[in-house]
Design a protein that fits this description.
binds protoporphyrin IX containing FE; 4-stranded mixed sheet; 17 helices; 9 strands; heme binding; alpha+beta; Cytochrome p450; 52% helix
């Protein structure tokens, strides 16, 4: 017996090894005469999951791109993913996704001026309070942007009531839950690992839905005839007003997509300005020459003349894009950079990596707003693709104009009216935290003195 068991065991071992090898090396076959993009070595069952688990996705993708190139094919479980990390590849991928671009204006300066005036009054008070005059700028920025966006989306009534404030905290929790990696999304057989996280997310979404419903009901009771806020506009339009779910989804999209993105951009800009006193001085000089002495308020009418402020905001969006990765799905088989991309592939455009690519940007890790003064670089993904803070094309951000307005306006007022310092006197820590919008790891706590 023993004489034939040994060769059989070797044969069995060899076949398993061969099977595993062929599985590891297997590349799904390409179409239209071109091959799939290069791919790192995968592991059985989990594919490339081990390369990203426990890391910031944009950084993990950056490491993979440096080794394998700007178009990399990955598998998480059995789901195909394409990671794009160069401007040229991003242009091609977005061309495949769609070829038109549209932006929609959202302007109502009065509400924004009121929100800003409230924030400035609070800051002046803090600057006259007992020493040390330290302010949580993260909190101030978050409150003022939330107030501005909420007034635009749901009207004036909700901005300061208790429920609105509770909803703000709820949204924060939703952002954290949405930013989590759910293994079951790519490997359904591992869904049980997500059960606790998923139940928590479900509870949060239920609370969000209830709040949205109350907003819609309340506006409907008023007849929807007041104001130019988003709910009123939808209630006046038959196409939207028939479906509460549709209206709630749009309102949530606006608040969710508009508040944190604008707030973290202002926070990163302030942090970069504190760490770069020369740039802060140049911005202050511009504000003095356009607006006048600090006792005068910055108004929205000034913003178009503040060229250096615009450059500071663009440079902030380049180094700290709130959406580090843009995600979409290939609806049909397509071709990107001569590579075949199968239908259903989830495409990741690594915005963060592209905007720090040394082939496109000189000294890419340096905060240098001057690059936007010297060159007219398009940041909305129409002509240039070296940075895509708002995405691009039909799925791109519909709130670009409102977002940029809010960021310029709040930042200009914070810099013009107040002097800010890091209480420790050292450089600020610029580490990134976790979350959907690439927030700072450490909140901004600064000492304030008023110039007003
Ligand atoms: C600095 C501020 C902002 C930044 C950086 C930003 C960035 C983005 C990005 C990158 C996307 C995804 C685009 C894509 O997938 O290609 C997006 C989508 C979106 N943004 Fe913005 N955004 C900002 C402000 C706003 C504001 C103020 C609003 C409206 C109040 C808004 C509403 C939306 C909506 C509704 C979407 C679509 C979300 C979806 O597809 O479900 N955004 N934004």
């Amino acid at each position: 017996m023993e004489t034939w068991i040994a060769p059989l065991a070797v044969l069995f071992g060899l076949s398993v090894a061969l099977l595993l090898k062929s599985w590891i090396l297997r590349q799904p076959s390409g179409g239209a005469g071109c091959s799939l993009p290069p791919s790192p070595r995968a592991l059985p069952l989990i594919g490339h999951l081990h390369l990203v688990l426990g890391k910031h996705l944009h950084r993990a993708f950056g490491e993979i791109a440096r080794e394998h190139g700007p178009c990399v094919f990955l598998k998480f479980g059995s789901s195909p993913h394409l990671v794009i990390s160069s401007a040229q590849a991003a242009r091609e991928a977005i061309r495949v996704r769609d070829s038109t671009y549209s932006s929609r204006p959202f302007l109502s300066p009065a509400a924004r001026a009121e929100e800003m005036a409230l924030a400035v009054a609070k800051l002046v008070e803090a600057s006259r309070g007992p020493m040390p005059r330290t302010v949580s700028l993260t909190q101030v920025i978050s409150d003022v942007t939330y107030g501005m966006i909420l007034r635009k989306v749901v009207g004036n009534g909700h901005r300061r009531n208790e429920e609105a404030l509770r909803f703000k905290h709820l949204l924060k929790e939703v952002f954290v839950a949405a930013g989590e990696f759910y293994v079951g999304d790519t490997m359904p057989w591992l869904q049980w690992l997500d059960l606790r996280k998923a139940a928590h997310a479900k509870r949060l979404y239920k609370q969000v839905d209830e709040y949205m419903q109350r907003l819609v009901d309340e506006q409907r009771r008023k007849g929807g005839d007041i104001g130019d806020d988003f709910i009123s506009i939808m209630l006046r339009n038959e196409l939207f007003s028939k479906s509460d779910s549709f209206m709630k989804a749009i309102v949530l999209d606006m608040i969710g997509a508009g508040t944190d993105t604008s707030a973290v951009t202002i926070e990163w800009a302030m942090a970069e300005l504190i760490n770069n006193p020369r740039i802060m001085s140049r911005l202050l000089e511009e504000l003095h020459s356009v607006v006048g002495p600090s006792s005068l308020k910055v108004e929205e009418a000034h913003l178009d003349k503040l060229v250096y402020l615009d450059a500071v905001v663009k440079e902030t969006l380049r180094l700290h894009p709130p959406a580090a990765i843009l995600i979409f799905q290939a609806a049909q088989p397509c071709q990107v950079m001569d590579y075949f991309v199968p239908e259903g592939t989830r495409v990741f455009i690594n915005n963060y990596e592209i905007a720090r690519d040394e082939r496109c940007w000189e000294e890419p890790l340096k905060f240098k707003p001057e690059r936007f003064v010297e060159r007219n670089i398009d940041i909305v993904g129409v002509r240039d693709f070296e940075m895509l803070p708002f995405g691009s094309g039909r799925r791109g951000c519909p709130g670009i104009q409102l977002g940029l307005r809010v960021v310029h306006f709040v930042l200009a007022n914070l810099v013009h009216g107040f002097e800010w310092k890091n209480p420790s006197g050292k450089e600020l820590d610029m580490s990134e935290g976790s979350g959907l919008t690439l927030p700072r790891a450490v909140p901004l706590e600064l000492t304030i003195s008023s110039r007003i």
